[in-house]
């Protein structure tokens, strides 16, 4: 099966279940700390500059944004966690919204969990991964901003990240850069496999 990645558009933004698309298309969600590069990852995969809005200011994405890809697959851009300047009430709302989506969405085939390749995963990153594993969701760990560290350090960083996450060997780990596009093919392969489209 082939997918035309150029045929991609935002479908809708949602804050609650009633607003999710009603069909049965497989969905892949992108979760990660605010500013880690979720929207840039979506743009990189779809070869678009700004389909998913990116910003150097954290907290840009505040709703679940659903992207239709060639009527075969959807990406779901999830608002980032760990943004300090968000109020307690906002954080609780975020928690409820993301938990509701991740734990009840039948279309969901896998979650791309994005972490910054330069650093050890944060406590929030670990908590997210544990949460996903608790709900038996397949996870594709994407280590972003690989362009910011020399290749000679990639293996070491991969070990640091996997160790801290207690990485499940049935999951996939992919170094990624939205700048150099490194990891795009591997990411597509993992996503299409998870969505049963390969
Ligand atoms: N060098 C480099 N910068 C990146 C990469 N990916 C994202 N960035 C930059 O990191 C910043 C945040 O990227 P976004 O894609 O908006 O991050 P996000 O995770 O969607 O952020 P929120 O929507 O706030 O949760 C932007 O300034 C991007 O240009 C990458 O692979 N390499
Ligand atoms: Mg974003």
UniProtKB/TrEMBL annotation:
InterPro entries: G_ENGB_dom, GTP-bd, GTP-bd_ribosome_bio_YsxC, P-loop_NTPase, Small_GTP-bd. Its cofactor is Mg(2+). Transmembrane segments: none annotated. Pfam families: MMR_HSR1. PROSITE patterns: G_ENGB. Keywords: Cell cycle, Cell division, GTP-binding, Magnesium, Metal-binding, Nucleotide-binding, Septation. It comes from the Bacteria. The keyword Cell cycle applies. One of its GO terms (molecular function) is metal ion binding. GO terms for cellular component: cytosol. One of its GO terms (biological process) is division septum assembly. Gene3D superfamilies: P-loop containing nucleotide triphosphate hydrolases. Residues 24-197 form the EngB-type G domain. Necessary for normal cell division and for the maintenance of normal septation. Belongs to the TRAFAC class TrmE-Era-EngA-EngB-Septin-like GTPase superfamily. EngB GTPase family. This is Probable GTP-binding protein EngB.
């Amino acid at each position: 099966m082939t997918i035309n990645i150029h045929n991609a558009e935002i479908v809708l933004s949602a804050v609650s279940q009633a607003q999710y698309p009603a069909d049965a298309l497989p969905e892949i969600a992108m979760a990660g700390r605010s500013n880690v590069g979720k929207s840039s990852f979506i743009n990189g995969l779809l070869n678009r500059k700004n389909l998913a809005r990116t910003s150097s200011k954290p907290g840009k994405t505040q709703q679940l944004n659903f992207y239709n890809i060639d009527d075969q697959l959807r990406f779901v851009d999830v608002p980032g966690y760990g943004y300090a300047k968000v109020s307690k009430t906002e954080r609780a709302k975020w928690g409820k919204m993301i938990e509701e989506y991740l734990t009840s969405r039948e279309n969901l085939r896998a979650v791309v969990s994005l972490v910054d390749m330069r650093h050890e995963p944060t406590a929030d990153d670990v908590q997210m991964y544990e949460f996903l594993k608790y709900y038996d969701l397949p996870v594709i760990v994407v280590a972003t901003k690989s362009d910011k560290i020399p290749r000679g350090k990639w293996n070491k960083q991969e070990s640091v990240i996997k160790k801290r996450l207690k990485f499940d060997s049935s999951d996939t780990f992919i170094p990624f850069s939205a700048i150099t596009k490194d990891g795009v093919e591997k990411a597509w392969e993992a996503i299409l496999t998870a969505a049963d489209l390969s």
